[in-house]
Amino acid sequence: MKHRRKRTMLGVLSAALVCSSVLAYPAHFTAYGAVTANPVISREVPAYSTAGTGAAASGNDKFYYSFWNATAPDYLAYDLSAVPEAQRKSVTLVWYNATGQFDYTILNGSPNGMPSDYTVEVNSAPGGTYPEEGWEVRATVTGNTLHSRQHVVDMAGCNWIRLHVTGSDGKEGGYISINMDVHTTAEGVSDSWIFYGDSITACGMMNCYGTGFAEYVHQIDSTYYPIQENGGIGGIRSVEGAANMERWLEAFPGKYVSIAYGTNDAWGNQTGAAQYYANTASMVEQVLATGKIPVVPRIPYATEPGVGDNLAAYNAMVDKIYENYPDVVKGPDFEAYFREHPELLSADGVHPSEQGYDGMRQLWAQTMYDAVYKTGDTPVAGDLNQDGACTVADVVLLQKWLMGAGTLTNWQAAELTGDGVIDSADLCILRRMLTNQ
């Protein structure tokens, strides 16, 4: 349904609505555009490896429980020549290892088949026959300690892409075990996610055939198939997350960053709620400093008293994050979800059951689809109060918010300059919109 814009006389309010480039409390909200789809384009394309094409095909089939298994040095190469050229001029290559710990150096994990030294390479040779020569290096990684990585790759004029692993588990001759997807990012990296957190994230947010976050988003809306990494580490607290966030973000070229710590902080009140807030705020600020979008869910409900008795104080800090950082996307309310469904917790009363983890992934997908993907009707520019029209009330609302008062929720309608920031320039444009009606 199309909205109508009302004509309104502004004479009586003109003195109160003078635009100023200096505000007492400048707005800090950054407006982000809608998600541009980055679907996977490498599913079941011809795959090659010295380990054999059968082994290579396990790297890009639809089953994330099957893997390309090889011994370093070796390569996993995809022939993308049948993919429309426009979709492969810029891509994101992402590989996944099944190791449970995102960064095995944090809590004495094991690399267990993770590529530690490798290059990402492209080739302009025609498709159909694997090219032995002509490979050009686009990225080089040494000493990797993470169980998944993303690389944005310029493939203009090229038909082939490969991951050439020279060291795995920190050595030549090491075992390699990964899946590898290639997503189109020709229109920019937009639909790319990483989920940092503790064991609940580590066990719940892996790529799953048919039931992963990316799969559930795709089932809701087939336009999308997100790039997804699981940044969970069992036993980790917010303090370790804050200490390592900058380093982890350097390896993540994507857009959305989930920060899901708190269960271990609350378990026995290890850090105290105030310190948990400080750590989470630090992580949010580090994400924002990179231009990425932080997403924070509420800490899951637990029947275990060591967690449950402290949960109210810790989730109050999550709510404080929402209040103090309006840039944060609100993740799922896992306290409410598991309080309503305690039968989805495992015997320890903290970790979800297999069905509980699946429910979490579904809730992640639906919540993010509603908050991030779904645009609904095109909003009326300047309709800040969402009454279907742009009026003086919207001007007053924006001015109050810029001065540190009032609440602003319809960010997309308020960002009028196209610079991605809501500030006094948007107020000036909004006023001109009304005077020109």
Task: Describe this protein's structure.
The chain has 13 helices and 14 strands. It is α/β, with parallel strands linked by helices and 437 residues long. The protein folds into three domains: 11-34 and 382-435, Dockerin domain (Type 1 dockerin domain, Orthogonal Bundle); 41-185, Jelly Rolls, CATH 2.60.120; 191-374, Rossmann fold, CATH 3.40.50.1110. The strands form three sheets. It has a five-stranded antiparallel sheet with strand order 1-3-8-5-6. It has a five-stranded parallel sheet with strand order 11-10-12-13-14. It has a four-stranded antiparallel sheet with strand order 2-9-4-7. Helix 4 packs parallel to helix 6 (273-289) and helix 6 (273-289) packs parallel to helix 8. Residues 377-437 form the Dockerin domain. It comes from Ruminococcus champanellensis (strain DSM 18848 / JCM 17042 / KCTC 15320 / 18P13).
Q: Give unreliable regions as ranges.
A: 1-32
**Number of separate domains:** 3
Order of helices and strands: EHEEEEEEEEEHHEHEHHEHHEHHHHH
What's the architecture of the largest domain, going by CATH? 3-Layer(aba) Sandwich
What integer is the average pLDDT?
Answer: 88
First-last Cα distance? 21 Å
Tally the beta strands. Answer: 14
CATH class of the largest domain: Alpha Beta
What structural class results from the helix and strand content?
alpha/beta
Strand order of the largest sheet: 1-3-8-5-6
Helix content estimate: 25-40%
Give the biggest sheet: 5 strands, antiparallel
Q: Outline, from the CA principal axes?
A: globular
In the CATH hierarchy, the third-tier topology of the largest domain is known as Rossmann fold
Q: Can you count the helices?
A: 13
Radius of gyration using CA atoms only = 24 Å
Identify the CATH homologous superfamily of the largest domain: SGNH hydrolase
